[in-house]
Amino acid sequence: MDWSTLPGDLVRLVAGYLHDPLDFLRLRAVCRSWRSAVASSPPPPFLPWLLARPAGPAHATASLSFFSLASGAVRSVPAPSSSHRLLGPTRSHLLLSDTTRHLLLLNPLTGARLPLPDSPFPASNPVIQGYLIPAAADDDSPAPVVLYNARKLFFHFDFMAGCEPTTKPVDRDGWTEVLVPDLVAENMYHDGKLFVCDDRGQVTVFDAATLAVVGAVPPPPTPAAPPRRDAFNFKCTAFVPSGHELLCVIRHFANNERGELLEYCRGGLEVYQLEMEIEKEDQPPQPQWVRMRSIGDRMLFIGLFQGFSFSAADFPGFKGDCIYFFKLERDKRSCIYRFSMEDGRTEELSGPWMHACTWFVPSLS
């Protein structure tokens, strides 16, 4: 059979089921007619990859390992050099830093590299994380980058071009400091706003264009009773943008009999949606986290402090109302789990023997 004679509509139909980007690239490389058939339409949505935590001092590595949930394969991608360490992933790119404060955005799928101004943090400071804010599909403006540690948070200066901040943040070689009121535990950009959570769970909301404080959000409610009464417990909140909504997923952790900190899954995961205006009797509207019993068609992929949302309708064979997450079971294995919001069950999925770091969404852009 001459595969090049396969009708273009059928080629595009097959391509729509390829939710691992490497499978899609292989289909596109079969012949010129197949490449032409898929070039007329955007690629299918890709499921997240699970990124392995780099080994070695300060998480520096010469290669990066990924596990594809769609194909079940482990991929290895060369890192820029063994001196680079991972600061944070996002959709399409990884944010890397070397020992001299040089920063780099890397698309591990295409190899595209985007240099950035040097980090505003001292090279001796080991606690630095960051991420790229993905631009909207119809937005040609530069995608801003966020860098932060426990005490300071910076925006890449290009995002501030043409804006007049209402505050006067410090400009350091293209980086603009966000004047956070307290310690930074985690943060998330969503729908034109920056949500910065402190170590007590209180969230300060900044306008992303001016960096002015526009509100505050109380912490999500604390459960009436911890999942285990015989151990120290704490919860971890992961922010998940989903369309125009901001969700947070709460995960519970506890110490076992040997003092090891492990995730406690038996009680399930809790999902809350941020309602920016809640009417209360004799009180002005105020933001509030509202517990969700169902997330509908959505699939959430969450790490410790961040996550991604997808529609199950885009992925034949996958069902919605589920949360995918991972937890460290042994020294070098991270088990992948799926929690069903419908029946409250948690099931283990097949996965690699790797120390997982976070989810990463591959892109051909």
From TrEMBL:
Gene3D superfamilies: 1.20.1280.50. Pfam families: Beta-prop_KIB1-4, F-box-like. Residues 3-39 form the F-box domain. It comes from the Eukaryota. Residues 66-337 form the KIB1-4 beta-propeller domain. This is F-box domain-containing protein. It comes from Panicum virgatum.
